[in-house]
Amino acid sequence: MNLSFFDQFSSPSLLGIPLILIALTFPALLLPSPDNRWVTNRLTTLQLWFINLITKQLMTPLNKKGHKWALILTSLMIFLLLINLLGLLPYTFTPTTQLSMNLALAFPLWLATLLTGLRNQPSASLGHLLPEGTPTPLIPALILIETTSLLIRPLALGVRLTANLTAGHLLIQLISTATVALFSTMPAVSLLTLLVLFLLTILEIAVAMIQAYVFVLLLSLYLQENI
Fold it and tell me: Any transmembrane segments, and where (predicted)?
């Protein structure tokens, strides 16, 4: 029983072929395709308005040099948002519950922001490791602490996204299992747990959206430090 709770986090396969690539490419089918018509339907207009809203929110903290990253950050935001929301559907697999995938997204982008800062303004980027006015005896320890905090940023990004989504999926499965188990013996308690499950599902929808936004927002803040 305990092992079955974690079966939802294992990558599905068909004839020995992992299907995680299909899960990763499926959200692209929900995006609007290029069209030459002047007048589009309401769904496409709503999608474009939402993409424009996301882009404005992400680009507000950045200066003009950081606007070159608009396409990457907006695409990543929409990608994570769709995957997180689609993973809440029954009998689906959520790739963002895999720490390896989240680290594969976080580490290259974090490294790109770091290398951008070292290339454009090396003195300012290295200056973050040693705040001004630091007492001389604390300089070695402070440099070590700041370097460690800098290097664990991609790990923190990946673990935060993985932990929040994994905890939410486990809670939903535990409460749904309790609802079914109590239905035949204690219907009143089962209805109460069903209400809790409904409220938890709404909460998890909000968490899925917030975690996608926080992941990309932190990357944009790391970028702002280095440009």
Answer: 12-31, 69-89, 101-118, 138-158, 170-189, 195-223
Domain ranges of the chain: 16-32+39-226
CA distance 104 to 158: 8
Beta carbons within 10 angstroms of residue 75's beta carbon: 14
Question: Residues 67-118: pLDDT tens digits?
Answer: 888 889 988 998 899 888 888 887 777 888 888 889 999 999 999 998 888 8
Q: Tell me the residue ranges of DSSP E strands in the chain.
A: 13-14, 17-18
The answer to whether residue 1 scores a pLDDT higher than 50 is no
- pTM value? 0.82
Rounding to the nearest 10 degrees, give the CA dihedral for residues 44, 45, 48, 50: -110
